[in-house]
Amino acid sequence: MKNILTLCFTLLLLAGCGNEPKKEKFTYKRTKTEIKPVVNSTRLVLNSNDLMMFDKNLLKGQAGKEITLTLNHTGKIAKEFMGHNFVLLKKNVDVDDFAQRAVIAKDNQYIPEGDETIAYTNMLGGGESDSITFTVDEPGSYIYICTFPGHYQIMKGEFIIE
Questions:
Q1: Which CATH number covers residue 116?
Q2: What angle do CA 88, 52, 59 make, to 5 degrees?
Q3: Do residues 54 and 83 lie in contact, with contact meaning Cβ atoms separated by under 8 Å?
Q4: Which domain holds residue 130?
Q5: Does residue 104 lie in a domain region?
Q6: What are the φ and ψ backbone dihedral angles of 68, each rounded to 5 degrees?
Q7: Is residue 32 part of a domain?
Q8: Strands of the sheet with 41-48, listed across from one edge
């Protein structure tokens, strides 16, 4: 019995050795794709929610370079009740005064008349997003806020331009 098993095993081994796998009839050439960073641009994402919070209170960008900021409202409440925006103020703007004037600017998405902003998004409700692109030429520290009534004291941050 042992001899029969050894013979069967040897025959199977010899039968299997003669069948080399066929080589595919194609060739390929490896190519290297170079990913180039966008040198003159910064992309930032800022999230807001139904708890009246931004997920970041510090943003950074480079002077003279294009900045694209996307604001997401990750909550569910409509903008009439829990709207959020991103408003980047110019240097030396009185934030309290600006925000108080913003309360009565409902028809202009809570952006008061004047020349005190660098950039701002639309007012967003839950599930909405908006992107803006802007450039800040002067390095320094800038303040950003949400101008929906009552939000600016909690929803604010610093934007550093290097």
A1: 2.60.40.420
A2: 35
A3: no
A4: 41-161
A5: yes
A6: -115, 120
A7: no
A8: 41-48, 66-73, 129-135
Residue with tokens 């950039």: 119
Whole-angstrom Cα distance, residue 106 to residue 58?
27
Q: What is the pLDDT of residues 102-126, one digit of tens each?
A: 999 999 999 999 999 999 999 999 9
Q: Is the pTM of this model over 0.85?
A: no
Q: pLDDT by residue (tens digit) across 41-66?
A: 799 999 999 999 999 999 999 999 99
C-alpha to C-alpha distance for 51 and 103, rounded to whole angstroms? 19
Residue 98, token pair as written in the block: 């600006």
- Amino acid letter, 142: Y
Distance of CA 117 to the CA centre of its chain: 22
Please compute Rg for the chain using Cα positions: 31
Residues paired with 160 in a beta bridge:
60, 141
